[in-house]
Design a protein that fits this description.
The protein has about 110 residues and is mainly α. The protein has 7 helices and no strands.
């Protein structure tokens, strides 16, 4: 039932109705409710399309990852992985510094 629970959570967080999701998926609205209740499971192709529409990873929807990763962030990570190792290291070092700075601001306001 994990898929259904995560589908429901992601859909509600993005404020997309079952009808809207079904329309964008090219399906009938009742099927979304059936997916969310765990009555039926979508094919891998349909699940991938749902993940794309909701902007989440298929790993999240299927339970392979507990992180609800924003698709924009995932796209950035994929772009980073396509770069040369040296460029990846420089970017990650800079990103690490920015994250530490943001955490410090959060802590000390």
């Amino acid at each position: 039932m994990l898929f259904g629970e995560r589908l429901l959570k992601a859909r509600k967080e993005r404020k997309i109705s079952q009808e809207e999701l079904a329309k964008r998926l090219g399906a009938h609205a009742p099927i979304i409710g059936r997916y969310e209740r765990g009555e039926v499971k979508p094919s891998i192709e349909v699940a991938a399309k749902i993940a794309e529409i909701l902007g989440v990873s298929l790993d999240y929807l299927t339970g392979l990852s507990d992180q609800l990763i924003d698709k924009n962030i995932l796209d950035q990570v994929n772009e980073l992985q396509a770069l040369k190792q040296e460029d990846q290291q420089h970017i990650l070092k800079t990103l690490g510094a920015l994250i530490r700075e943001a955490k410090t601001r959060l802590t000390f306001g």
